[in-house]
Specification:
By secondary structure, the protein is of the alpha+beta class. It contains four helices and six strands; from the N terminus they run αββββαββαα. Helices cover 58% and strands 15% of the residues.
């Protein structure tokens, strides 16, 4: 039973780290990247559709992304969604493709993005602490019901703390990397 609880907690924490990686990938740096557009949703025939499902992305230059919609009728909706997003970019269209030039980040904008990255990292840490608390509560309930001994619960809690610490450290490392990337001119 303890192993199941610990395994479930570890899997959930691993997923939380993956979500954090995806969130960090959407934070814009000075370089063009298709991952910047992952979280953008486009109003497409009355349905909110993720942009990557509607178009392909290419980065021919370090500061440019070329977006080729699969359906040319979605061109204006895609442009509007990009313009309305928090990326701070202005797309241009030639009727076939949408070009997005990535402007140089100002010092102020870089600091804003670092704050966003830190808040996303904190959200991830909170998620992991909640997972830890839930697993600990499950073990305490098993102890109270008499299914486990106190020694087993202590050992499991120690292991749970180690796992939590490992995943929190992983998120912190990802945050440091993102901060370095954002401060790079």
């Amino acid at each position: 039973m303890i192993d199941d609880i610990l395994l479930e907690a570890e899997e959930k924490m691993s997923k939380a780290v993956e979500v954090a990686k995806e969130d960090f990938a959407t934070i814009r740096t000075g370089r063009a990247s298709a991952s910047m557009f992952q979280k953008i949703s486009v109003e497409y025939y009355g349905t909110h559709t993720p942009l990557p499902q509607l178009a392909s992305f290419q980065t021919p230059e370090a500061r440019m992304v070329v977006i080729t919609p699969y359906d040319k009728g979605a061109m204006h909706a895609i442009e509007k969604a990009i313009r309305d997003s928090d990326l701070g970019v202005n797309p241009t269209s030639d009727g076939v493709v949408i070009r997005v030039s990535i402007p140089q980040l100002t010092e102020e904008r870089r600091k804003e993005f670092i704050k966003v990255a830190r808040s996303k990292a904190e959200e991830s840490r909170v998620t992991m602490r909640n997972i830890r608390r839930h697993a600990k509560d499950s073990m305490d309930k098993l102890l109270k019901d008499g299914h486990l001994s106190e020694d087993d619960v202590r050992r499991a809690e120690k292991h749970l703390d180690e796992v939590t610490s490992k995943f929190v450290t992983h998120v912190d490392d990802i945050l440091k990397h993102k901060e370095t990337e954002l401060l790079e001119v």
